[in-house]
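Hi R.,

Here are the chain sequences for the assembly we discussed:
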Amino acid sequence: MIGAVFSSWNGKRAVEYREIEKIPHEWGTAVTVQAMVFGNMGTDSCTGVAFTRNPGNGENRFYGEYLVNAQGEDVVAGIRTPAPVNEYSKNSQSKQFKTLEKLMPSLYGELFEYQKRLEGHYKDMQDIEFTIEKGKLYMLQCRIGKRNGVAAVRMAAEMHAEKLIDTKTAIMRVGPNQLVELLLPMLDPKVELVTKPIAKGLPAGPGGARGRVVFSSHEAVSWAKRGEQVILVREETSPEDVDGMHKSQAILTSKGGMTSHAALVARGWGKCCIVGCSDIEINHDARTFKAKDGVVVREGDWLSLNGTKGLVYEGSMALVDIDLDKNQSYKVLMKLVDKVKTMGVRANAETPEDAKQALKFGAEGIGLFRTEHMFYGEGGEEPLFLLRKMIVSKSEEERRKALGELFKYVKKDVKDTLKVMNGRPVTIRLLDPPLHEFVPHDKEKLQELSRELGISMSVLKRRVIALAENNPMLGHRGVRLGISYPEITEMQVRAILEATAELIKAGKRALPEIMVPVTCTFNELTHQRKIVDLVYKEVCEKQKLKKIPYLYGTMIETPRAAIRAGLMALEADFFSYGTNDLTQMSFGFSRDDIGGFLPKYLDLKILPYDPFQTIDTDGIGELIRMGIERGREIKPKLKVGICGEHGGDPESVVFCHKLGMDYVSCSAFRVPIARLAAAQAAIGS
Amino acid sequence: MIGAVFSSWNGKRAVEYREIEKIPHEWGTAVTVQAMVFGNMGTDSCTGVAFTRNPGNGENRFYGEYLVNAQGEDVVAGIRTPAPVNEYSKNSQSKQFKTLEKLMPSLYGELFEYQKRLEGHYKDMQDIEFTIEKGKLYMLQCRIGKRNGVAAVRMAAEMHAEKLIDTKTAIMRVGPNQLVELLLPMLDPKVELVTKPIAKGLPAGPGGARGRVVFSSHEAVSWAKRGEQVILVREETSPEDVDGMHKSQAILTSKGGMTSHAALVARGWGKCCIVGCSDIEINHDARTFKAKDGVVVREGDWLSLNGTKGLVYEGSMALVDIDLDKNQSYKVLMKLVDKVKTMGVRANAETPEDAKQALKFGAEGIGLFRTEHMFYGEGGEEPLFLLRKMIVSKSEEERRKALGELFKYVKKDVKDTLKVMNGRPVTIRLLDPPLHEFVPHDKEKLQELSRELGISMSVLKRRVIALAENNPMLGHRGVRLGISYPEITEMQVRAILEATAELIKAGKRALPEIMVPVTCTFNELTHQRKIVDLVYKEVCEKQKLKKIPYLYGTMIETPRAAIRAGLMALEADFFSYGTNDLTQMSFGFSRDDIGGFLPKYLDLKILPYDPFQTIDTDGIGELIRMGIERGREIKPKLKVGICGEHGGDPESVVFCHKLGMDYVSCSAFRVPIARLAAAQAAIGS
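And here is the predicted structure of the full complex:
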């Protein structure tokens, strides 16, 4: 028997649990041997489990269940429906049972006092096991109770208000990822409990959603326009689908992994998303998909998704929406968080709407404004067309003309966001993707371009082919574009500085940070800085301003840039670590292609976790550390941050804090998570 | 006048010269002011330039030219044809002139003594300027004379034999790249001098060549089969052209840069090659190309190429071939080199022929045997077909069957080379390229595969598409293949160990080094080592051997592997730096795609040189240094080498020596160059 307890440490569920909770397998377990009491000695005996506060919503009410004439195992096994300990603990299934309070009022009173005392002693919500043997109450065990995110926040805030715990403890009580539950709507758990999913995929974007099935981005847009809620179902998504993805309630793909295009975009928006759902087979011609069990879902049919668990349900399921503004506990907790944390938290955002959302979530600035964003999605058609014109231009003259037309769009785009951010820093990344990414691939769009540009299809095609690359990730992109075509940098810098100047003259505040991407050597920064200096002088003169506020800095995203950070710092006011690319290049992993081997790597534990989700501290972390050290050796006050997916990952945020970064930046919806993680890091250090 | 001398430092040619010779621009120049003598005071006056030995071939004979009644400028300007100072100095243009020796015998005698004394004093060949003013000899200047490669080697060897210089000095006298002239045939310089080139491209592969023009690899092979010498002219080349490239005397491409496929392959073979020759326009339909000046060259026409300078000539020009075995000076010098150098030099080779060539050039082992080589070129069809079968296999069972058939080819391939190397180490890299690279792209070959495999074209196509990657360089390749499909590693290791065992049982010597490519973490090495251990045991038993000699090691080619080298060393007997990939990943430069921006980078001096030609010591060098330090901290005797293009670059070889590497490995033909550089590094350190 004692041996069985010891060996339970290696039970399948125990091992799995430790893996989820990251508890080392080598710790082992202990066994306490003690006298036994019996809850199954008759009707004056019972056994039960209770919580000092409601673990489902955090309310400060005693909550529990019990079974008369039973042992603890009977309660846990769930063979008999347990009864509520008090009125408050009643639910739809147990409401007809007699409460312990009514059945044994004095023993209940005793129990109530104990639980109060235990919580007071341990200063946290307790999960209590008790047994009544022939009218005598025995407390079997108490331990800190598990709770969901909503409850965790409420308990932390209320216990702090009750002065049961101090500020630091309150902050440490909530797991940063638990906040996800507060930030996203969820499928009604009660309904979900009694419904069978038709398919299961990877939980790429948490939260719940429901909508009518469409099979193309185009349909998603047009259905949404007429007020329909839709779920976009695709094999995979690409940048061309972004508009339709944005308009959908959720995205479901049959292929791709946790770092596929769909997963990344959805996580960025905090949108519900399930990817790699191989249980479904899409038939594009018939506009249907077939689920594993043969269920056929047609275009227009309702579907409900649990993105937190990766479950797909037929039909329209009720959603439980949570309004953050009404969640007082959340507000209280986050105020404490902001008092404690020392590292800034910014958001990645590219539109005034995103910026407003970011502010709502507590962002202190924008850490990544991708200029190329304006070419995708709503309103992007005209600028995209101009960009394409610029791309296929053959001469600097042609290119300058197209850039000239593009200028006003870029300026407006930048200005609108700077305005919303009202003086908070906005880091604007100069054009980054390889140009081929913007080129149209369908004949129709190519023909339109050829007509508009007045060049033949064959010439156009030749120019497009010339832009194609074998490894675009390592190709003609980032600052390399700005060096090959300085006029692109010039136009963007002019747009940024003029937008800033106009806002300042209108009495507003604005602080752009011009960021050069994909650098690998100091000389690139010098080259681009000369352009910035020149344009700055011109804009100052034109706008009759003595100075326009801005910073000039670089992404550190190639391994070489991290190694050469000392020199890079000479020309940069700030570094922003692009840990996505740094991870890609240092591991030699193309994020688009890791589907072929990463699952096996994780499965065989060759890698402990996906390095695109959590920073690989041993390898990438060392490059980051080296870069910061070397940069600050030259420029002690160098501002250092991180932008990209890792900025919203709690473990990575803690790591960034330890390295002495000034801020992390992540997708707006993950800002509260990052803030909490930053506060916990400040407490932990 | 003095000002003019000072400002000559900034003359266009001076600047260019400094750039070629890598002399810092900030050094500046000095001016010496002295009394003048005149060689233009009548027929008893003259002026001349002479060398203490022949700078053209190194012969130890006084060699020079002079002009009666002239100043130094007249000699240099070349307006009048100068006369020879002695019989030995006569050439076809000057043979009718009277020698100085005949004209002024006593002054010539005086000059002869001076030059002898000067060489004895400076212990090197002197370039002397003299003037005779009215019968009196003045020595104006002497300096170390420039010489070509052939002369440099001869002078070094002979001066050493004369005991004029010691061993170290002799070795330092020859620029490693000067050896190229001794190793490759050249166009006859006399003919070239009077012929106008029809086009100019980038000098990707030095040496001279002539042959008849063909426009496809297929034609190259079939023409070569019937004994024709051909030059392959293409826009670009790809791995599928390798056979035709190999069969050609030289390769000429209209596109691509110094690191294009054609350039790399040709340099590897030491084959004459000109790339990026935009002066020519290929018309595939007409089987012609048109040069800049309108010259049209047809298939079958003769062409001559100077790969050292990138010049293309019409017609068949004579070649000057040099037989190394007959070059006593070379042999003497290289013996000195091998005495002095401390670092090993190996060759990259994959066939018994390559291995023999490597040994001839003095290689001490093979540093890179690419297993995938066997699938290209002659005799590769059957193994390639089996490989393709393996690649499109759907199950492990299918894959194992195809691998089983492939086994004998791999074993033979490895065995033949191990045999030639006779106990010298042969580093065999496990399969490296992403599988998609091997898949046929033309319909015919796909159909053949579909017939043979008994699967439909649509299924086959789907499997092929599934293998395609966005960034294959960072994709499913190297050890990732060995982890996804351990049976591939298993088959290769079995082939290597069985080949070794068979040789040993036959009384031969063999030392394979099994090398795992593209690793980024220790766990990958552990995973693959388990396979090696298992197979080792099986082969020992099967072959009834107690032990089979082999080493197990890894390439260090991802930045992360260099950073984590400490742990990697735990599982590796050796490290081999793959500086090509390390450069690609650390800079974020795809070698296939740098054509779009690298020329501009070099032009603007954003990079001082092409990091794929010479190791970037500041960035990549630091990663290498870090990797060696960390690796040897764990395993002090860890064997460390470098394979890939940099191993044959003299500056990089010196750097590798400084870092304490055990060996460099480069293409066979560059082995003497690397040996010389290694000796110079040993002297310099």
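The longest strand of chain B covers residues 136-144. The radius of gyration of chain B is 29 Å.

Let me know if anything looks off.

Best,
T.
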